[in-house]
Amino acid sequence: MNLVFSSSHRSIGVITYILLSGASPFLGDSKQETLGNVSAIAYQFDEELFSSTSELAKSFIRQLLEKDTRSGVRVSSHLEVKGQMRKKYQYVEF
């Protein structure tokens, strides 16, 4: 199995989605539907689960889950989002 950079980004996007919502982004009513959702990268931000999630965080997830790897997140985008979040939430690094 070859791990490509885009799949690493998608994994981070899925993990971030789960951490912020407690739900799987691609979960369907059956295994077949779930596999179809994964293949199509079909997900949505459930209003109830994401009501207190910032647009910045949702944008970060969207970019990580982007199907077209040419328009996906770049390292510079990660750093920019991290900087914006640090300013907004005044994170303290240890």
Automatic annotation (TrEMBL):
GO terms for biological process: intracellular signal transduction; positive regulation of apoptotic process. Gene3D superfamilies: Transferase(Phosphotransferase) domain 1. This is Protein kinase domain-containing protein. It comes from the Eukaryota. The keyword Protein transport does not apply. One of its GO terms (molecular function) is protein serine/threonine kinase activity. Keywords: ATP-binding, Kinase, Nucleotide-binding, Serine/threonine-protein kinase, Transferase. PANTHER family: DEATH-ASSOCIATED PROTEIN KINASE 2, SERINE/THREONINE-PROTEIN KINASE 17. One of its GO terms (cellular component) is cytoplasm.
